[in-house]
């Protein structure tokens, strides 16, 4: 390969001036048609899969207030144990299964889905609370690489300027799932006693069966990695590969344990873990404890389920609007901080515990809006700065799966004896949110400083640098970190 072909320049936003100068300009009309086709082919199926995923991971909160707590004798912190053990499964299996996803391809998402659907059905068949702990652990392991795998797949097909808005759209499935979960649970509750099973058991059984059916139907619809895509014409595929050649997917890379450990030494990945953990803890608290909190405001179990719906819908709308604005302005840090600030307002309301239930209910809206904006930004921002291929996959897996460690905290600080105020839970959430904002600030300043130093040192290198960005990733001297 000629030296001029080895040279690649990456700046914030993913544009490569050097490479673009060697190629004919892209037909913008054809590009718009291609992006629309990608949007219709890739995003809907992933959205539906994530809808099922989030319903399955959050339904324990709905089952709790439909009789599970009494029937399984979930006294003391037993329910909390059943919540956090799920995240132990994610923590232990997340990164290895994300690497397996990168190796075996996107259809492995459907295999994971069948596995966790079986465990969800198992949650509805347990006889003792200890058995629920085991099934929840296995469910967490089976689900551990789904979000990180989907995030990697989306990033493989879109440019960096398009990545955040598409990933946020994908994430709205989780938010909508939180909304319809309450509605679905209120309907399934009417099956109480059918077949000798309580309402809470039917919640798990029916939703687990639906998950398995959806995974089987989705198998032919999940797209392969870009180099193997078969749903585009030859011209469209060439255009697509041209657009994403400086993106985050590297089809020719292999990985070793030593290489994986080397990638994990990057401080930006662990700053991303802290960013994600700071808001994920609060999001998990909302998903797992909101029905209980609302019931404590004086609602019946069914009313509490229904009142979760507007909270999630407003959170979804807020996150989409400001994610698109973040992408348009090419700014991540400022919008992460915006999400953090909105989250802090909601937490402050809950900590103050005003006497009016409507005001405390309003605080839930602020918590949802803040979490659901900051979470996807933390994932996409760090993954954009992690170069390509396995490093990006490992970075996404680490951020999402180690970030779920926040659930260990939330499941143990929302103590039954503090119902419905949960002062310790919300206060801890505020502290972790501030930790996330601190990590985001460190990431912004560190990346800005590194970009500045690389600009200053660029004159020390030859005009043509040996090695490409595909080979060197974010270690290439022309790579610039997104801010």
TrEMBL record:
One of its GO terms (molecular function) is transmembrane transporter activity. SUPFAM superfamilies: MFS general substrate transporter. Residues 42-454 form the Major facilitator superfamily (MFS) profile domain. It is found in: Membrane. The chain crosses the membrane at residues 81-100, 106-126, 138-158, 164-188, 200-222, 309-326, 333-353, 359-382, 394-416, 428-449. One of its GO terms (cellular component) is membrane. The keyword Membrane applies. Its main location: membrane. Keywords: Membrane, Transmembrane, Transmembrane helix, Transport. Coiled coil: none annotated. It is a multi-pass membrane protein. This is MFS general substrate transporter. It comes from Trematosphaeria pertusa.
């Amino acid at each position: 390969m000629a030296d001029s072909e080895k040279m690649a320049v990456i700046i914030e936003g993913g544009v490569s001036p050097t490479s673009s100068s060697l190629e004919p300009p892209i037909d913008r009309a054809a590009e718009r048609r291609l992006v629309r086709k990608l949007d219709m082919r890739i995003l809907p199926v992933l959205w539906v899969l994530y809808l099922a995923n989030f319903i399955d991971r959050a339904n324990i909160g709905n089952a709790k207030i439909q009789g599970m707590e009494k029937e399984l004798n979930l006294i003391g912190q037993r329910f909390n144990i059943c919540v956090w053990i799920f995240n132990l499964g994610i923590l232990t299996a997340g990164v290895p299964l994300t690497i397996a996803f990168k190796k075996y391809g996107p259809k492995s998402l459907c295999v994971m889905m069948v596995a966790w659907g079986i465990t969800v059905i198992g949650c509805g068949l347990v006889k003792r609370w200890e058995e629920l702990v085991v099934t929840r652990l296995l469910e967490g392991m089976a689900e551990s690489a789904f979000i990180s795998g989907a995030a990697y797949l989306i990033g493989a097909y879109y440019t960096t300027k398009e990545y955040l808005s598409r990933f946020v759209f994908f994430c709205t499935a989780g938010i909508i799932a939180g909304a319809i979960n309450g509605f679905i649970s209120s309907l399934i509750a009417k099956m109480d006693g059918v077949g000798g099973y309580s309402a809470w058991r039917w919640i798990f059984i029916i939703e687990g069966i639906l998950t398995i059916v959806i995974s089987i139907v989705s198998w032919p619809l999940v797209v392969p990695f870009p180099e193997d895509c078969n749903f585009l014409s030859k011209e469209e595929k060439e255009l697509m590969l041209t657009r994403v050649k400086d993106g985050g997917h590297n089809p020719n890379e292999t990985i070793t344990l030593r290489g994986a450990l080397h990638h994990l030494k990057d401080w930006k990945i662990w700053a991303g873990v802290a960013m994600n953990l700071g808001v994920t803890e609060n999001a998990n608290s909302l998903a797992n404890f909101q029905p209980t909190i609302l019931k404590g405001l004086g609602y019946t179990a069914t009313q509490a389920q229904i009142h979760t719906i507007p909270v999630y819908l407003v959170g979804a709308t807020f996150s989409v609007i400001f994610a698109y604005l973040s992408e348009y302005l090419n700014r991540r840090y400022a919008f992460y901080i915006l999400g953090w600030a909105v989250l802090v307002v909601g937490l402050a309301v809950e900590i103050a515990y005003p006497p009016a239930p409507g005001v405390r209910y309003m605080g839930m809206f602020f918590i949802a809006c803040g979490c659901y904006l900051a979470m996807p930004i933390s994932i996409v921002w760090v993954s954009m700065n992690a170069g390509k291929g396995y490093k990006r996959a490992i970075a996404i897996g680490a951020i999402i799966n180690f970030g779920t460690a926040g659930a260990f905290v939330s499941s143990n600080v929302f103590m039954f004896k503090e119902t419905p105020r949960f002062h310790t839970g919300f206060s801890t959430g505020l502290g972790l949110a501030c930790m996330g904002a601190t990590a985001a600030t460190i990431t912004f300043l560190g990346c800005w400083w590194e970009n500045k130093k690389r600009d200053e040192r660029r004159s020390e290198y030859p005009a043509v640098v040996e090695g490409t960005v595909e080979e060197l990733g974010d270690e290439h001297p022309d790579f610039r970190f997104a801010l």
